[in-house]
Write a structure and sequence with these properties.
It is a single chain. The chain is an alpha/beta fold. The chain is 42% helix and 18% strand. It has nine helices and seven strands; from the N terminus they run H-H-E-H-E-H-E-E-H-E-H-H-H-E-E-H. A seven-stranded mixed beta sheet has the order 3-2-1-4-5-7-6, with helices on both faces. The longest helix has 17 residues. It is globular, with a radius of gyration of 18 Å.
Length: 263
């Protein structure tokens, strides 16, 4: 690195993909981000969480449809991955992708097969009518783009909205992550935002203690929130609704499983 960077504190630096750019350039960037997500196994953590969360309620009622919403869905690659994961397992899901960027949703629609039933929503998830009654809320690689007060607001909303639980996968700030990404993304084939924005993203991301502070500010008890470093270079934060935890425990004990119906 040509400069000494301080990873003990979050950096407040702008990313090029968050600024004005053409639709074609944004779409190109999102396509390459989807490749980076595959290379770094970004979606595997969400899929493992969904497997844990849905095992008991799906066993209790295999016909039940679970409503899942993705905050900041971008190119929609995580939702398409979830759709492919759920189908062979016989898990019925209604998938909703929400984003505040109309061009990102346009790119997501174009990349999604016509047979898909994913619904795309433009707007603020906290106020959009289509995102208010859901079982599960997920997000991947989005929260480091937000200010702390925006994250606290979202945490409160997610906790009051998701009937079963919510799960956020984001980057973890560290010098090692920065150096490894810097090396891996050196190449003329990557869209021009990928490497510089990725490095800025790592500097903008959070550490476990910072997530714990934001969760506390949102009124969430430390014992109710799981904050887990996950390889490679990810930090996952989630909470299961107590009723969902009870359902899982009852099911695993061999008794009749309980589940909470969405309001």
């Amino acid at each position: 690195m040509s400069e000494t960077l301080d990873f003990s504190r979050r950096a407040y630096v702008a990313e090029e993909m968050d600024g004005p750019c053409s639709y074609e350039e944004l779409r190109h960037c999102l396509r390459h981000l989807a490749i980076v997500n595959r290379i770094t196994l970004a979606h595997q953590h969400t899929l493992r969480w969904l497997d844990r969360m849905l095992r008991a309620p799906h066993a209790a009622d295999p016909r039940r449809t679970f409503r899942l919403m993705d905050i900041g869905c971008g190119y929609g690659d995580m939702l398409r991955r979830i759709e492919r994961w759920a189908q062979p397992r016989g898990i019925h899901m209604e998938l909703i992708g929400a984003d505040i960027n109309a061009n990102a949703l346009r790119a997501a629609r174009e990349a999604t097969p016509a047979t898909s039933r994913i619904q795309w929503v433009l707007g603020d998830v906290c106020t959009s009518p289509e995102t208010q009654e859901v079982d599960l809320i997920v997000s991947c690689g989005v929260f480091h783009h937000l200010d702390e007060h925006e994250i606290v607001r979202l945490l409160r909303w997610m906790d009051s909205t998701a009937a079963l639980g919510w799960y956020v996968t984001d980057l973890q700030r560290s010098a090692t992550s920065y150096r490894v990404f810097d090396l891996l993304m050196r190449g003329p084939w990557w869209q021009r935002f990928i490497r510089p924005d990725g490095l800025r993203s790592i500097r903008r991301s959070f550490r476990p203690e910072e997530w714990a502070t934001m969760c506390a500010e949102a009124g969430l008890a430390a014992s109710d929130v799981a904050i887990e470093p996950c390889r490679p270079a990810r930090l996952c934060v989630g909470r299961a609704n107590p009723n969902a935890v009870l359902a899982s425990r009852v099911h695993e004990s061999g008794s009749t499983a309980l589940h909470r119906e969405p309001s």
